[in-house]
Amino acid sequence: MTNTNTRIKRLEKLAADLKQDHLCTQKELAILHGVSERTIARDIQLLRDQGVPIDADRGRGGGVRVDRNWGVGRLNLSYIEAVELMISMAIAEQMGSPLFLTNLAAIKRQLEASLSPDKRRKVSGLKSRILIGETASTDVQGGFTMTDLTVQQQLQQGFLERTSLRINYRSENGDVTQREIEPHYLLLNYPIWYVLAYDHLRDAPRTFRCDRILSTTSTTNQFKLLDKTYFQQILEWHKSAK
């Protein structure tokens, strides 16, 4: 099962790489993905069999890429890309943005229709784990900093795959502690993101500001999703404190 998941992820990444404007040789793609050229050749053929129109330039220095004319009318989003787009739209909708949302319902219907029933259920489940609160107070926003990109990526991975993370966390008073957390829910008090997590160190539910997470290490320790009511006291506090 692990090998299958690895290949699926590689195919999704390969499809995204092939959508770039420049040509990539099979050798370059093999190095980029850490596999042999023969494996990349098989993956490219599999994508072709799935209907992805991949052009090949066999001349000197040639390469492969998705047909340039395969445009917006035939979006070929990977599962992760579709998840990110649908969650972003859900966030914009919940925040009540007054601009550029006129056609949002139609876009969502088309995007959902492009997913299999199983993937639609997974996306729906993920959206229910992202909570939108009030805009953070001026005092809270005063200490806001951008979250490190690597931290963002590993946090997202742990959230999507329901695997715990080992983190170094800086508290409000500057103390740094090491924790292992289970990222069950994400809360946005714009522009501050919080993780609602089970904290193994405290053996209790805790909330962590994403911009105070200094570093993360992924684990393979999967967790069972806790009901939102488990974090109700924390949510009530955030609602009052913002």
Automatic annotation (TrEMBL):
Residues 1-28 form a coiled coil. Keywords: Coiled coil, Transcription, Transcription regulation. Residues 7-65 form the HTH deoR-type domain. The keyword RNA-binding does not apply. It comes from the Bacteria. InterPro entries: CBASS_pafABC_assoc_protein (IPR051534), DeoR_HTH (IPR001034), HTH_11 (IPR013196), WH-like_DNA-bd_sf (IPR036388), WH_DNA-bd_sf (IPR036390), WYL_dom (IPR026881). The keyword Cytoplasm does not apply. PROSITE patterns: HTH_DEOR_2, WYL. This is Helix-turn-helix transcriptional regulator. It comes from Vibrio gallaecicus.
